[in-house]
From TrEMBL:
Keywords: ATP-binding, Ligase, Magnesium, Manganese, Metal-binding, Nucleotide-binding, Purine biosynthesis. It is an enzyme of class 6 (ligase). Its EC number is 6.3.4.23. The keyword Ligase applies. This is 5-formaminoimidazole-4-carboxamide-1-(beta)-D-ribofuranosyl 5'-monophosphate synthetase. Its cofactor is Mn(2+); Mg(2+). The gene is purP. 5-amino-1-(5-phospho-beta-D-ribosyl)imidazole-4-carboxamide binds at H24, S92, N253. Residues 126-347 form the ATP-grasp domain. Catalyzes the ATP- and formate-dependent formylation of 5-aminoimidazole-4-carboxamide-1-beta-d-ribofuranosyl 5'-monophosphate (AICAR) to 5-formaminoimidazole-4-carboxamide-1-beta-d-ribofuranosyl 5'-monophosphate (FAICAR) in the absence of folates. Gene3D superfamilies: 3.40.50.20, ATP-grasp fold, A domain (3.30.1490.20), ATP-grasp fold, B domain (3.30.470.20). It comes from Ignisphaera aggregans (strain DSM 17230 / JCM 13409 / AQ1.S1). GO terms for molecular function: ATP binding; ligase activity, forming carbon-nitrogen bonds; magnesium ion binding.
Amino acid sequence: MIDIDKILENYDLDKLSIATLASHTSLQIVHGAKLEGFKTIVIVLRDRLWFYEQFKHLIDEYIVVDSWRDVCSKNVVSRLRESNAVMVPHGSYVEYIGLDCAENIEVPIFGLRGLFRVEADQHLKMDLLKKAGIPIPKIYSFDENIDRPVIVKLPGAKGGRGYFVASDSKKVFDKLKTYVDRGIIKSIDEAIIQEYLVGVTAYYHYFYSPILNRLEIMGADIRYESDIDGLRRMPLEVINAIGIEPTFTVVGNIPLVLRESLLPKILEYGLRFVEVTKKYIPPGIIGPFCLESVIDRDMNIKVFEFSGRIVAGTNIYIYGSPYSYLYWNEPMSTGRRIAREIKLAIEKNIIKNILT
């Protein structure tokens, strides 16, 4: 058990730093931190250092590693603590450094450390959404007969890589067996089989503030996935002729402004998520999270996934979104909102309320 209070006793809060891994949403995070007056640190792979050195105006300190697995090393942890650093995890955090390091790194984390283990397991994720009373797609067990399109998802934050669509049990089993044989997953039980939902995909960005006791809608996006989206430009007969099997690897994000009549339901589902994390993973969600959904023709929303951290779709709103502007009346990215929350907590002398 990490004693965050004891670590913070040796921190100079007037010299607090915001640290993150150099990937995913790191540029947004450090940009927001600088706007709020914080020192910034990125932990960066040696072969990526040249790129992040182009942003020296945003980054005060580089901690260079040869492998992401070095993040929990004594040297890296010591440097972070000497700099009074708070780690801001993003969507690649657990995938890169591993669950054990993510959970046990002896540095204060902005966010809910206890959620990492849930996020690493597709079945636990869907169970949490179900407990929240949020509508989800049908989940198939491996002994059920599949007679309609399903999407099969792998554990962890893989950005859609390896996901596939099938319409019969044999194809699902055979494909997952090849993943086991190739070492992509340890067993087929790690994957999850969901009904394939028809509608518009929509990803909602939220920020829960323990300091203000408020849930904010920060934005929304649509993900552009290769090559499932690229195939839409090809005639069906061409796709069938060349035998392409579509994948869902995310390559980018597209801004989305929602019908205002949908916002009450979206906020309600976000509030349900906040409450279920408070109940089952205390102290509950802190800061950014995302509910990932499909909206059907009747405006029904089913949530098929969530992320308990800042998501890449927020990168399209580095200058703020239409929704974040409504709360703050100034440009407010999710990266800056994280820094603002830390700043407010320091001012109110309740920094322990937002760190785990």
